[in-house]
Amino acid sequence: MSKPLVLDGTGKTGEIPANEPLQFGNAALSASGLTTPRTYTFPDKSGTVALSEDIELSYIRAWGNPIPNYIGTGITDTYSGLIHSCLINNYLYLCDANRNRIIPVHIGENGNLAARLPFGSAGSGTGQFASITICSLSNVLVIGDTANYRIITARMTTPDSPTWLSTFGSLGTGDSNFNNPHGVSASGRFLFVCDVANNRVKVLILNVENGTMSFLQTYGNGISTGTALGHFNFPRSILAIHDYVVVGDVGNARVQLGRFNTGTGAITWLDAYTTGASFSPHGIAAYQNYIFISDLNNAAIVVYRLNFNLGTMTYITQVTAADLGLASFNCVGLSYYAGHLYVCDYISNCVHIIRLIRTL
Q: What secondary structure, in 3-state letters, does 63-81 show?
């Protein structure tokens, strides 16, 4: 076996090599308290799964715990509760939920990742969170501050320097209230929020110029659970794509598809889709009309194709941990950028990098 590569604050960066142990920590990092060497090995995985006649998924590597090196600092760190992500330009913003912070990660060539210093801390003040989820619109970051029962906006003038803009919401059941806002997604001037414990999906108006938000409308069975279209049980993830929304209705073991009016924001609920009683849709991303859904209970990514003209989704396949060559796959948040899926694993606290390959 090759010698461990030691990242010791000398500015070394790069991908985690396959089958080569990486050792982190020495006296040079004493200021961070991370002085005990730790070695991690991320094996090469060659699992490739065809999605259709013209596209397939190929597992590349795991990136993450610990973070190899914050850019320009020589400091190594670890995640705790990596649950969601979003994109602004070529930066992936990761929610480190248990540590109440957001980590900006640069996406380089071939999907390579390099982290900048995080921002955020535990609390309820400006720049503080209590468990978080995230989305973006233009260069505005939208943060679901779950246990503070509010939505926060920030403008990312530089990748790791937020300018805090506005806050909306408090605990309750009214129009301006949430009870654990978890999934967020934005399109145009509309912000869609999964109000998890109130069993509803809320639509807000988002002013992208100043980050302010205002209530528009709510969908659900009051705050009770329901199984009809437009009713929810623990809705936890949402994606706005074109003029559609896809909602991970976890308690009902399904995703719901709705179409929203781009002028009014009103949603018409079209249909619901499931792979079975254990289906647990915790994250949603898209590439063109392919919809990728992280199924936490089954350690899988479920793939549908959305027909934009008909307003229907067709099941394509379910990609499991075994298909990708992994022993486990605790997938939650998903993001797509430039030919790669980035999958947050909240137990292993790493990001799985999966390449989408066009075969025709």
A: EECCECCCCCCCCCECCCC
Six token digits for residue 195: 């109000």
- Per-residue pLDDT for 136 more than 80? yes
Nearest to 190 by CA among 272, 135, 145: 135
More confident residue, 16 or 122: 122
Q: Where are the alpha helices (DSSP H) in 75-147?
A: none
- What is the residue type of 57? L
Q: Which among 306, 303, 299 has a CA at the least distance from the CA of 318?
A: 303
- What average pLDDT does range 197-221 have in this prediction? 97
- Round to whole Å and give the CA distance between 33 and 46: 36
Quote the number of domains for the chain.
1
Instruction: Identify the DSSP state of 130.
Output: S
Using DSSP's 3-state secondary structure scheme, residue 176 falls into: coil
Please write the tens of the pLDDT for every residue from 249-266.
Answer: 999 999 999 999 999 999
Q: In this structure, what token pair is assigned to residue 71?
A: 């850019």
Tell me the percentage of the chain whose pLDDT exceeds 90.
Answer: 71
3 state DSSP class of 249: strand
Residue range 286-301: mean pLDDT, rounded: 95
Question: In which domain, by residue range, is 183 found?
Answer: 119-273
Of residues 88, 147, 138, 141, the one with CA closest to residue 119: 141
Strand, coil or helix: what is 214?
Answer: strand
Which amino acid would we find at residue 149? Y
d(CA 24, CA 77): 9
CA 261, CA 259: separation in Å to the nearest integer? Answer: 7
Evaluate whether residue 325 is within a structural domain: no
Q: Round to whole Å and give the CA distance between 255 and 307.
A: 15
Residue 138: count other Cβ atoms within 10 Å of its Cβ.
Answer: 12
Identify whether 135 is part of a domain: yes
Tell me, what CATH number does 242's domain have? Answer: 2.130.10.10
The average pLDDT across 47-64 equals: 78
